[in-house]
Fold:
Amino acid sequence: MSAVGIRVERLSKRFEHRVKGQVYAVRDVSLKVEPGEFLTLLGPSGCGKTTTLRMIAAFERPDAGRVFIGEEDVTHLMANQRSIGFVFQNYALFPHLSVFENVAYGLRVQKRAEREIARAVAEVLDLVGLTGYERQLPHQLSGGEQQRVALARAIVIRPRVLLFDEPLSNLDARLRVHMRGELRGLQKRLGITALYVTHDQEEAMAISDRIAVMNEGVIVQEGTAEDLYHRPASEFVAQFIGRTNLLAGRVLSVAPGGIELEVAGQRLQMAGSDPGVRSGEAVRLVIRPEAIELRPTTSGDGLVGTIEGRTFLGEKVEYQVRAGTHLLQVASHDPAQKGAFAVGQRVTVRLPTDGVHLLSPG
Ligand SMILES: Nc1ncnc2c1ncn2[C@@H]1O[C@H](COP(=O)(O)OP(=O)(O)OP(=O)(O)O)[C@@H](O)[C@H]1O
Ligand SMILES: [Mg+2]
Structure:
């Protein structure tokens, strides 16, 4: 079976709020997941991720908008007619049913023959690594195993697409990282289109082909993890994806070869040209912690700073560096050489000439 995509057109949903009256949980959301693609909706709590997913699955009725699975308009179809597999955060397993019966559930609803059910269940339990667990009850399983059962239950009906709502958030950190690798591998092996919801930016970056960032009911930016990290379209995205420094600056001159900026009292020559800015304009600079370099204070020009905080994280050291009115986040991935900076030490801060992204003042 070849994969089919998901298309959402201008989906909106309002809820009654006791204090605020009618409020939009989701507003005019349009979205396209390509066949076989893994797309993640990423955003803070309450931004409308679950509501969007539930409308696609027909667990929630949209006020406006349309949902397509492949070329088919499924907006007016019920949940069980949409051929969607759904994996919930809390697994939602039937506590009194065995692993086998939990997974078989959707097939029994479809009134499949007993032999066919046995074969299909065995096949998906093998896929998720749970062969031999058929007779266990959910409470006899670890969180990770329960999540695998939920996944097996979602894929056994051979859905056209898979939806996931924070499926890993009840697992401990190690298992979460392990399971997201497995999930991703399985999705690619099955070649099935997946729409995934999380508020965890690292998880989103690790698991997705593309990410759609949501805030307050709308999608604010879509792209690969690299796009969002290196070219955030707004302060919100810059802050939400990874750690960042946002510095106010001013454009001194724009030439074909580069842009000259003033930032933190320093002149900064930026390579390349940014079509969006004009000379004299106020801008904000997005500078990632790993792009800033620290040197012992005697070593030439740059900002003078003082180390205010230092966190050793194994593969990197994170510093908070006070430079004038700015408190900069700096990450050093070369601890053997540069990890020597101590709290209270004076350093020279070298801002990068590339790896700087400009935002217009908003
Ligand atoms: N049934 C409901 N009745 C009233 N308001 C609701 C209902 N469901 C959701 N909302 C509101 O809609 C908004 C979006 O909720 P939603 O559950 O989609 O957020 P979310 O992005 O999934 O958040 P989280 O990361 O916390 O799960 C929230 O403000 C929420 O309070
Ligand atoms: Mg949610």
